[in-house]
Amino acid sequence: MAELSPRAGQIVAAARELVEAGGADALTMRALAARLGIRAPSLYKHFPDKSAVEAELIAIALAELATALEGAEHAALEGAEHDDGGGGLAALGRAYRAYALGHPHLYRLMSAGPLPRDLLPAGVEERAALPLVRIVRGQAAARAVWGLAHGLVMLELDGRFPPGADIEAAWTAGMSAFTTAAR
Description:
Layout: H1 6-22, H2 29-36, H3 50-78, H4 89-102, H5 104-111, H6 124-136, H7 139-157, H8 167-177, H9 179-182
Helix pairs in contact: 1-2, 1-3, 1-5, 3-4, 3-5, 3-6, 4-5, 4-7, 4-8, 6-7, 7-8
């Protein structure tokens, strides 16, 4: 990611606070300026529009998710002798879920709607996907696993599982269904 100026970094940090606290709808240029104690037009010296601020947040979220998945992949490879045969897929699923549940509003911003690829730093999306692509050996299988993981996370975030549902068992079953792709 490109290095931000100190003031742009403050703007992004304040934008993240707004999103983390109230979701993407809480992020407006007016609310952002108020949080920083400045007038909204001052923001445009650093970012051309709200979508540029959102893209910076998405890039940060993708980089954080990549770090979490890389850590899970590394830990799975270190403990391969204790693996369940899924090649670390369960560990990646746990890391993905933990990130999404730990940052639900940022996760939604990152994963809802079209990805503003033209505004993202080169390689950030690929870095986030690479641990999964390596574990399941291929983009098609990785996309299928990602679809399952994203769907399960969204169901959990939206409270769509029935009361008392064993969500952990759903994750285990989902990841187990892809273990042959991971071999």
